[in-house]
Structure formats: C-alpha cells, structure tokens
C-alpha cells in the first residue's frame, strides 16, 4: 500500500473515532445535565430548609456570593512574676500579618484563596493558618501560628527596661474554640460572619462554649535557652447579640468565657522542668464583633473581629497572658 493511501486510512480512522466519541458525548450530555440539575435541586432544598423564624432570619434569594477580604492579625504574650524577690514583667508582640483573599460561595458551600503580599516579597517569614465555620447552631475557629518575628521588652523592678531582639522568641500556638447557640431559630452567627443568612430583627442567644490552646516556645536570653509548653482546655458559656438598628444594618457582639478544666504547663531551663501550678480562675475568653451594611439589593460590606485571650498562672509567682486577634474588612456581592 502506498504512503498516501496509508495516510488517508489513518486520517479516515481518526475521523471516524472522533465522530463516535462526539456522538457518545452528545448521547451522555442529557444524562450529565440531569445529574447536575438533580444535585443543584438537592443543594437548593438543603439551603432553603432553614428551620428558623423567618421574621428574624432569612436566606438571601440568590445562590451565588463573591467576597473580597482584607485580613489583619496579630499576637502578643505577657509574663508577670517574681524572681529572686524582685517583680518582673515581659511583653512580646509579633509582626502584624496582612492578607488579601477572594472567596466564592454557592448555596452555602464556600471556597476561598488568600495571598500575603509581604510574604511573597520576603518581608514576612511567619506562618499562620485560619480555618473557621459559622453555622446557625454550631461553629468554630481554628488558628495555628508559627511565629518568630516577636519584638518586646523585659523589666525587673528597680532596673531599666531592656529591649528584646526580634529573634529571641520562637513560638508555635494553636487556638480552637467552638460554640452552640440555643436560640438558633432567631439569632444567627453566620449573618454577621459568613453573610449566608440575613438578620432581619434584633435577637440574642445564650451560648455554650469550649476552648483549647496548645503552645510551645523557645526563648534565647543571653545565650541561655528557656523552653516552655502549655496545654489548656476550657468549658463555659456566654452570650451573643445581633442588633438591627435599621433596615440594612447589623451589629454583632458576643463573649464566650471558658474556665480551664485541664492545664499542663511547664518551663524547662538547663534540662530542669519546672511545672506551672494551676491557680483558679484560669480562663480562655473568645470575643467576637461585627458590623455589616447592605449597600444595595446585591452588594454588602462590613468589618469583623475575633479576639482570643488566655490567662494562666499566679501573679505572685508566674502568670502568662496570651492575646490573639484577627480583623477582617470585606466587600461582597450576591447574584
């Protein structure tokens, strides 16, 4: 068989195969469309089945939501105590972390991506992970931070304050807190923090809460290494309130104090482990605030803040206070 004939047969075979494939795809297209439509219907039913008092809470009429966000977060650690009959106090603050993110949501299912410009340019070396989910009944915040860029000071009673270098403290921190809302038919956490609900009237709710914190750090002070670890678990209750002063506005504030029921904290110096004794009351407090404004039927903007505070130990011996916070400025559209 000549070369042109071989080439002709190859082209003919490829064309026939392509035609069969297209025909099969077209034959399957209606089935795929029906499957996609079925999934969309199930998600829509799930999304609309709110089991709430619609005089107070409702869902947006649209299915899609697009949000742009500017996030800023920071952390600090403060220690007070007595060393050789002299009072001392130390404070260290991490560099602020700023990220920009874009998120898309379809019928309450969300996906987002965040970028840290300072980290991309090599100006920020720390690592931080924030995962949060706010439901009308349950919700949680999970925050992990590996920070090295702390700056601060140390002062002993009767002596001048000493500035501490930024490379002295390396700290890994994990914070977790969760809530349960009793009045979830009228009070909506996600209306303030996820915007996939709309709060129409003012309402509040008592909240059950649980918190946990794990932390490990190394302090290099004048060539001497101090290592400390702490694990704390707390349970408690609090209150949240959504205030609707007028149509299109929402203001939220909530506080969730939890008392530590399990604590394991120690300081290691020269391979000698010194436990930090439990001193009642030791607490983990989570505070949240938000302001949301409906700019038009499809556009909204707002500001949220989450604040974590932990206090352990005894001021007469050694006490440690941790603060972790995050603010978020956002603008979104529904369609």
β-strand percent reads: over 45%
Helical segment count: 3
Taking all Cα atoms into account, the compactness measure Rg is 27 Å
Shape: elongated
Please bin the fraction of helical residues. Answer: 10-25%
Order of helices and strands: HEEEEEHEEEEEHEEEEEEEE
- Major sheet size, sense and barrel closure: 16 strands, antiparallel
How would you classify the helix and strand content by structural class?
alpha+beta
End-to-end separation in angstroms reads: 62 Å
Compute the number of strand runs: 18
Low-confidence segments, given as residue ranges, are: none
Mean pLDDT: 84
Characterization of the model:
By secondary structure, the chain is an alpha+beta fold. 16% of the residues lie in helices and 60% in strands. It has three helices and 18 strands. The strands form two sheets. The protein has a 16-stranded antiparallel sheet that branches. The chain has a two-stranded antiparallel ribbon with strand order 1-11. The radius of gyration is 27 Å and the shape is elongated. The N and C termini lie far apart (62 Å).
Fold blueprint:
Layout: H1 3-48, E1 57-58, E2 64-83, E3 86-94, E4 97-106, E5 109-115, H2 117-120, E6 127-134, E7 138-147, E8 150-156, E9 162-164, E10 169-181, H3 189-193, E11 198-199, E12 203-221, E13 224-243, E14 249-269, E15 272-275, E16 283-294, E17 299-314, E18 318-334
Antiparallel strand pairs: 1-11, 2-3, 2-4, 2-18, 3-8, 4-5, 6-7, 7-10, 8-9, 10-12, 12-13, 13-14, 14-15, 14-16, 16-17, 17-18
What can be said about this structure in brief?
With 335 residues, this protein is of the alpha+beta class. It has three helices and 18 strands.
């Amino acid at each position: 068989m000549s070369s042109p004939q071989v080439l002709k047969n190859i082209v003919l075979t490829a064309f026939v195969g392509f035609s069969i494939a297209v025909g099969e795809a077209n034959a399957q297209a209606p089935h795929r469309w029906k499957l996609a439509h079925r999934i969309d219907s199930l998600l829509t039913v799930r999304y609309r089945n709110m089991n709430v008092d619609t005089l107070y809470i409702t869902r947006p009429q649209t299915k899609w939501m697009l949000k742009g966000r500017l996030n800023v977060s920071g952390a600090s650690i403060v220690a007070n105590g007595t060393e050789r009959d002299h009072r001392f106090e130390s404070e260290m603050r991490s560099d602020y972390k700023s990220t920009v993110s874009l998120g898309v949501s379809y019928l309450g299912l969300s996906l987002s991506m965040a970028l840290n410009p300072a980290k991309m340019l090599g100006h920020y070396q720390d690592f931080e992970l924030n995962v949060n989910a706010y439901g009308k009944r349950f919700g949680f915040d999970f925050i992990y931070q590996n920070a090295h860029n702390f700056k601060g000071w140390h002062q002993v009673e009767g002596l001048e304050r000493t500035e501490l270098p930024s490379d002295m403290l390396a700290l890994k921190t994990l914070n977790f807190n969760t809530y349960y809302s009793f009045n979830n038919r009228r009070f909506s956490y996600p209306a303030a923090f996820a915007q996939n609900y709309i709060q129409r009237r003012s309402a509040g709710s008592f909240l059950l809460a649980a918190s946990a914190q794990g932390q490990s750090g190394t302090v290099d002070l004048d060539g001497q290494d101090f290592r400390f670890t702490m694990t704390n678990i707390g349970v408690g209750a609090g209150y949240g309130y959504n205030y609707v002063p007028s149509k299109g506005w929402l203001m939220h504030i909530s506080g969730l104090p939890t008392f530590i029921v399990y604590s394991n904290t120690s300081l290691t110096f020269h391979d000698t482990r010194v436990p930090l004794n439990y001193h009642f009351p030791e607490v983990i407090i989570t505070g949240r605030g938000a302001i949301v404004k409906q700019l038009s039927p499809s556009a909204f903007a707002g500001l949220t803040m989450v604040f974590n505070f932990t206090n352990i130990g005894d001021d007469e011996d050694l006490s440690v206070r941790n603060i972790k916070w995050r603010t978020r400025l956002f603008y979104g559209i529904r369609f």
